């Protein structure tokens, strides 16, 4: 789809091109705006056993037909801020770059979408949330909008086919406009658009029936998050803490950034330490268990890879060369290892591969520009997994 060049579009296409600037935003979010704590609970920190391996010198091929390079060199080129590889429940590789430390927090960008999807899956399994009901059943004021008229199932699979304010839909430009609405990026002079999550959702207009197209957009996640608040009566931060975070044995509290009304930005503004991100991945690798405690039903975790028929079977992540599946805000490649993952802009990743007994957590600050290819993190992760599997 061709997006017309206008002064307005030129403004919204700025940014994403300076790793140092991106890194500041990723690591200092709790200092630059309002946040809500996701309490780690009172329980003891759950230690992650270690079995260090020298993967720095592992030769990986980043692109088909390209030269083999050392993993450490690839990570430097990918603007990696931190990476943790856990195999069979033990940390085998952990590195921090650009001044980041193990106790520092980092935004996970759209990895946060997958946490919203996991909470929704939990509540659907319990019967508290009905996937076949439209969002307006839970948030009546959004009736008549694209998101309000879509079912929870459609929303969880990026099935809302919409535009905003009658504009031609362009994902990166609409993402920037959304970030302005919720206060993440500066608004231009004379800005008259929405100034909160819910105001933004209310501007969405359907251009085709829901479920007829895969259209990756932040609004789907924000819509589901609003349904979660309505059916539980608590904030997203409290719900995530109560159901998962406070039961992981996390090192630190997590945090959601907030809009001007105190609403969590569910689509991509959650921050945590790398080890805590890996702890959540290890819980999922073990079928929802932490030690001998089942904190997420095994059937809910197993369902994350069961992509339903429809456009979500042919989803195309940024930088991907072939479609993969998408279910409940999780990416599902058909790799033979039961892999599922969470992905965020600038290199935020959580990959869970039960068949390889592998979890990889990654934070990054790579640029987003038509002139710079997206680092093929998943291809390199697959080679790490194959190496560890022997």
TrEMBL record:
Q: Which domain of life is it from?
A: Bacteria
Q: Which Pfam families match?
A: Beta-lactamase
Q: Which residues form the Beta-lactamase-related domain?
A: 78-361
Q: What is the name attached to this protein's record?
A: Beta-lactamase-related domain-containing protein
Instruction: Tell me the lineage of the source organism.
Output: Bacteria, Bacillati, Actinomycetota, Actinomycetes, Pseudonocardiales
């Amino acid at each position: 789809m061709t997006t017309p060049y206008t002064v307005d579009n030129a403004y919204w296409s700025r940014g994403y091109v300076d790793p140092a600037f991106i890194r500041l935003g990723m690591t200092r979010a709790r200092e630059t705006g309002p946040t809500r704590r996701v309490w780690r609970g009172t329980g003891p920190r759950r230690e992650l056993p270690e079995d260090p391996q020298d993967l720095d010198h592992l030769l990986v091929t980043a692109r088909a037909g390209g030269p083999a390079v050392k993993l450490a060199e690839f990570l430097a080129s990918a603007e990696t801020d931190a990476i943790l590889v856990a195999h069979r429940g033990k940390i085998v590789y952990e590195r921090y770059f650009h001044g980041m430390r193990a106790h520092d927090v980092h935004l996970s960008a759209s990895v946060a979408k997958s946490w919203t999807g996991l909470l929704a899956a939990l509540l659907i399994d319990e019967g508290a949330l009905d996937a076949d009901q439209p969002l307006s059943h839970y948030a009546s004021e959004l009736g008549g909008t694209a998101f309000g008229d879509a079912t929870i199932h459609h929303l969880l699979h990026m099935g809302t086919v919409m535009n905003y304010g009658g504009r031609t839909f362009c994902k990166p430009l609409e993402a920037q406009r959304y970030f302005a609405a919720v206060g993440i990026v500066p608004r231009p002079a004379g800005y008259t658009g929405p100034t909160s999550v819910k105001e933004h959702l209310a501007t969405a207009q359907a251009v085709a029936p829901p479920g007829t197209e895969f259209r990756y957009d932040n609004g789907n996640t924000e819509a589901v998050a609003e349904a979660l608040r309505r059916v539980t009566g608590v904030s997203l931060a409290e719900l995530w803490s109560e159901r998962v975070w406070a039961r992981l044995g996390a090192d630190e509290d997590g945090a959601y950034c907030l809009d001007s009304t105190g609403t969590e930005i569910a689509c991509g503004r959650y921050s945590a330490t790398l080890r805590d991100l890996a702890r959540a991945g290890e819980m999922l690798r073990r079928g929802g268990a932490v030690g001998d405690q089942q904190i997420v039903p095994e059937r809910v975790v197993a369902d994350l890879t069961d992509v339903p028929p429809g456009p979500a079977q042919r989803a195309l992540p940024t930088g991907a060369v072939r479609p993969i599946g998408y279910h409940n805000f999780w990416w599902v490649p058909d790799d033979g290892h039961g892999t599922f993952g969470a992905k965020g802009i600038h290199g935020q990743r959580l990959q869970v591969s039960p068949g390889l007994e592998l979890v990889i957590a990654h934070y990054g600050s790579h640029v987003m520009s038509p002139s710079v290819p997206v680092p093929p993190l998943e291809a390199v992760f697959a080679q790490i997994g194959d190496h560890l599997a022997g």
